[in-house]
Amino acid sequence: MLIPRQTAPALTVPTLDHGLFDLTTATPERGTVICFYRGLHCPICATYLTELEKLTPAFEERGYATIAISADGAERARAMADKIGATALRLGHDLALSAARDWGLYISTSRGKTSIGIEEPALFSEPGLFIVNADRSIYYLSVQSMPFVRPSFRELLGAVDFAIDKNYPARGEYIGSLG
Question: Which DSSP letter does residue 146 get?
Fold first, then answer.
């Protein structure tokens, strides 16, 4: 189980237009917003990533880089980038499912074609949203077993403002005895 304030797992994926993303060598001022998404087959992901695309400049103004990552190959990732009109948001692809599991993501099996007529991959990861501080410690995490009811990027941006203003620490870090 991933714990806030502890070091995030390794994460290295190719991106469409920005070379290799490697969390260990990333140099954002404050941190990185990492959005793991299901893939091109998911219409909810397209809507969700459209919101992140629009808010990426606002996150960057606050010192946070953004990246959206799926297990899709480059061709499907490019189709998603085109679908959402990505210009600011980096899209990573070819996420190894073993790495997805390291991040605590749930893995699902294909159910065939989705409501938009795109075949699901045989295996793919379900959504996850993370803020990883510049020192690679986990600040925020939300992992889902379903594609529905995801955290709002606009609300996350407001939370980032609050955290910066109040120097608010990551929560949920206690792993000691409960008895």
Answer: S
Q: Indicate if the alpha-carbon torsion angle 110, 112, 118, 119 is positive or negative.
A: positive
Q: How many CB atoms lie within 10 A of CB 61?
A: 9
pLDDT digits (tens, 9 = 90+) for 61-90: 999 999 999 999 999 999 999 999 999 999
Measured distance CA(32)–CA(133) in Å, rounded: 6
Number of H helices, E strands in the chain: 4, 9
**Of the candidates 87, 64, 82, 62, which has an alpha carbon nearest to the alpha carbon of residue 72?**
82
User: Which residues neighbour 163 within 8 Å (Cβ) at sequence distance 6 or greater?
Assistant: 139
Strand partners, 119: 113
Which is it for strands 12-14 and 20-22: parallel, antiparallel or unpaired?
A: antiparallel
Domains of the chain, with CATH numbers?
28-166 (3.40.30.10)
* pTM of model > 0.90: yes
Question: What is the number of alpha carbons within 13 Å of residue 149 lying toward its C-beta?
Answer: 3
